[in-house]
Amino acid sequence: MNLLVVGPQGSGKGTQAGRIAADYDIPHVSTGDMFRAAVEAGSELGQRVQPILAAGDLVPDELTVELIRERLSEDDARAGFVLDGFPRNLAQAGALDAMLGSIDRGLDMVLFFDLDDDIALERMLGRARDEGRVDDRPDVIARRLAIYHEQTEPVVEHYRATGLLVPLHAERSVNEVYAEITDAIAALEGRRA
Ligand code: ADP
User: Is 91 in the pocket of ligand 1 (CB under 6 A)?
Assistant: First the structure.
């Protein structure tokens, strides 16, 4: 099962992707987590992306696409994956579609975490107090949300047009959203059986 989660910051997609990964035994592939781990490790990649993450900007597509290409070619991703944080713009979406097409695979479903900006902002400011992420400062949060609207929303429309999009009410509780997700996965598996 090849899944993708997309939605604004604070929409809970990372939490839900982690839960899906555990319950369906597929890896949770999060570009944000991978970049933060690289920064933490002080690797060459980490040193390169650290100021970009701190500013809330997007890491260049070449680096991000290559990171995903390598990650998805690992053994554990063969049975499927839940991709989180990628693709974030139309160029990355094109690269992903091509990458999967070249190995005769495709996405099964794109879970769209729909959330109003005011709730997204409120949640991120709350998380800033709890987690202390360097990019959870008010000015950087505003920048990340602006980039989401400008560059990632067209990705949502791209997948809506292909019929893969499953919109979710992301303002609901974690358990309510997860119930919508497991229903959608059951329907998908029913269609494939
Ligand atoms: P959020 O969705 O809360 O902004 P993420 O953990 O998904 O957090 O991403 C954190 C940061 O990592 C982004 O602000 C960006 O700098 C970088 N990043 C993550 N995914 C991508 C991507 N697909 N393309 C470019 N940069 C990315």
Answer: no
